[in-house]
Amino acid sequence: MTSTRHRPGDLGLADSSEDRRDSLREAGRYPRIYAIVRQIPRGRVATYGQIAAIEGHSSARMVGYALAALSGIDRAVPWQRVLNRTGALSERSGGGGTSRQRQALEAEGVLFDAAGRIDFDTVGWDGPDIDWIDQHGFHPAPRPRSAERRRRR
User: Fold this and answer.
1) How many domains does the chain have?
2) Scanning 4, 103, 108, 137, which has the fewest C-beta atoms within 10 Å of its C-beta?
3) pLDDT tens for each residue of 108-119
């Protein structure tokens, strides 16, 4: 019996959409998180909590751990598009990474205010298409709101 090892960002699934659909429902937590993050379009951002809510069995912290486990060369998962709930970049364990994340987001057209935060009302992601969510066994989650809008409630 042979065992195949996969990079953290690799789902290790067959290419057919039928296999992928069934496999995501049964996949481990990190592959499910990576599949969701891959859905975030260029120039849009999500929060760790939003990704956790869509996955359904994770916390925001677990999403952070999953993204931290990606290798620096794994470009298949756009980790830079996931921010904390205040719209700010979170320091990586061991330090560093925030300037690289900001540069990557700015290259996608994401703007930061003077306090180093993004406006979720402008670039927040609405989440995956409902058919994709249903097909893969995920959960709808609300779009994050900018801090100023949350205070007005």
Assistant:
1) 1
2) 4
3) 999 999 999 999
Would you tell me how many other CB atoms lie within 10 Å of the CB of residue 125?
A: 21
Give dist(CA 42, CA 117) in Å, integer: 17
In terms of C-beta distances under 8 Å and separation of at least 24 residues, what long-range contacts does 10-15 make, across chains too? 10/76, 11/35
Domain range enclosing 30: 17-142
The answer to whether 83 and 109 have CB atoms below 8 angstroms apart is: no
The answer to whether residue 29 sits within a structural domain is yes
DSSP per-residue string spanning 79-102? GGGEE-TTSBPPPPTTS--HHHHH
Tokens 């677990």 sit on residue: 62
Instruction: Please report whether residue 6 resides in a domain.
Output: no
